[in-house]
Predict the structure.
Amino acid sequence: MIIVTAVALAVGGAVVWGYKALKPPPPNICGSPNGPPITSPRVKLNDCRHLAYREDGVPKQKAKYKFIIVHGFAVHKEQRIPTPKEVIEELGIYFLHYDRAGYGESDLYPSRSLKSEAFDIEQLADKLNIDKFYVLGCSIGCYPIWSCLKYIPHRLLGAALLTPFVNFWWPCLPANLAKESFELLPKPYQNTYRVARYAPWLFYWWMTQKWFPYLKIQPHLRVLVFTEKDIKIENNMEDNGHQEQVVQQGVYDSMHRDLMVAHGKWEFDPLDIANPFPNNEGSVHLWQGYQDKVIPYKITRFLSEKLPWITYHEIPDGGHMFFFEPHVCASMLKTFFLK
């Protein structure tokens, strides 16, 4: 009887421990009694969620070009596009930055998907009375750009994908290319992407456990995925004092969900996307660093060859952060917008 009781207690304890380890803590929702304060303007979407936003550049009413900026992983709307002020005024650019679902001060969205990312952008534009616009995304912030090209091309004037995210399980990728490129990543990245893909129910535990190496923003991993130039660029970037706000509502509903949606099963393949500008009324540009250790240039080069309506720019000495050099950013914008 004692042995049976001990076994029952051990099993019960293991079940309780497993449940707690797999279940993320409740989110710390902005505006709730004990949650972070709401300090940014927000729009209310059709499903009653809120998106927080920030406007920059020339006033919207005077702008020649209106950009909606889609931020990347582990950052939010306060990350700045490092374009010299004189270039912004010369071109007449208005920037609209926003927090994607769960990041910063935007409401979380458990049903977040590729499609919802595009429709969030469309509704944000609607609420701020922006008819047509350009979209620009960097790194993992590019999967919403692919989604915009698929679901709301009628709202776009152009699109820019900078060191764009790659899902190594896209059906369009040749198996040998996907395998070769995937194996170039550090093991913690490979392991994390596999869990996000095949066991999303395990993802919170994976990203908080101490037994196996996983994707974590740590100095020793930065050396593995960033070039020396990347690290120098990152060190020179403005923090703006807002870094603590990125995951203030909870890391699971911001960064973790981001990875799971990005690496999960897509409802479309990039090669399924039709040319959004068949009459050359707009353009799509993809910029890729040849020395990028996070996004393999061979895959983005392959995609651009298969999608001839994308103008491909490969930066010989560019890593993953090349866009955040002010003179490079200014040059890219001029290439994109000036005939």
Q: What stands out?
A: The CA atoms of residues 83 and 327 lie 7 Å apart.
